[in-house]
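debug: dumping io for the single-chain case to check the tokenizer round-trip. Nothing else runs in this session.
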Amino acid sequence: MRTKRIMIVLAVLAIISLVAAMSAFVGSKGGSVAAGTDPDLNVPSASMPMGVNFKANPATGVNSTASVGFSNLKVNPDTSSQAQNEPYVAVDPSNSSHIVVGSNSWLAGNGHFDVFAYVSFDAGRTWAASQPYIDRNASRLNAADPTVAFGPNGKVYFGFVALSPAQGAVALSTSLDGGRTWASQSWVTSFAGAADKPAIAASNGSLYVFYQNQSLLSTVSTNGGASWSAAHTVEAGGRNANPVVASNGNVWVFYNTTSAIRMANADGATPTTVSKVVGLQGRPTNYRAAIYPAAGVDGNGNFYVAWADGRNAGRGNDILYTHSTNGIWSAPTTVNSDGSSADQLMPSLAVSRDGSVTVAWLDNRNDPANVNYDVYTAHSLNGASFGANQRVTNVSSNPNNDPDTQGTLIGDYFAMGASGNTVYTAWTDTRNNNEDIYISQVSGANN
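debug: decoded output
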């Protein structure tokens, strides 16, 4: 009898273990995989099969289309139903018609994701695609989190994180022909530890890469990416680096902690608080959104920062903004002027040669349910006060309108880039019944 009871207990324990294992498996299909032990190191799932019951569900309603003063140009030239998201934009400082956009892409069609580069030499009217992940590592099948910068003599640098099934490692590829093809790739970080969300800056012949695990770290290359310095900790708990290069070549990095937007120089010395932040309010949508700094610097050394913030309870998440003159930061102001309970998220910021500041962001003010989103922008001539909000997108996007991601991932960020007085903003767009990258010139004229 006693033996029988023991066998029953063992059987029950086996069933519990099986249920737990199945739950973990199902959970792993939900849209992200952990890289290492840091809960913030979450990346898109490498197993996103097309939803069997997916039905295209474009944004509809009285405000879902509009006549706007900006062209909406599709960046990725494919016509597939595979997702592209999380754009990053860099513009050639010597030619504002030359744009390089990086994005995540599921174009392989086998459940894996990669990073693509899209290059235009005619201000976004036509695009060519290439793949910067050329030195592939067998344990890092997927790639995400693109970041792009122009170097001297028209070189283009493209950073990304390669990962899964192994933990993330940051890589950097170099193009000698403006982003059409990729001549070389180096591994910026060790394969031994997790790394995520790289950001790059090029200045005075050096390359700076910032990335995160449990801390925000930096590394420098003085030989074009052939080798990299030992990692330096900028700040424990720092996330979401946004480096900017001042006119004198000094590199500064903006980032966030759980309670503040912070700023430090390239090696992490003398970090200062730009502003306190308040966590985002709950939203009816389930795509990822977070507090992170969108930053820029003008020719006089004045700094500008925007971020999404939840402090205005009852009126949704807003885009806040502050600027610094002589090291003194202004009180945060709200850029979006809707005055409703809509959410404003994923800001990007660019500073033009004339010192004007442009901010763009995701905005769902046109949908009473706060689901469908558009891109809005605002422009400041003096870096302190902004003109009227302007809608950029002529068609709203429904975040659920993608057969792969189905509302879980439109990207952690949108993007903006500037050259001279010409400014472009890019975003994830679902008007074609899947996620594509679109771009618009929102300020200035091409060279």
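debug: round-trip ok. Residues 1-41 have pLDDT under 50 and may be disordered.
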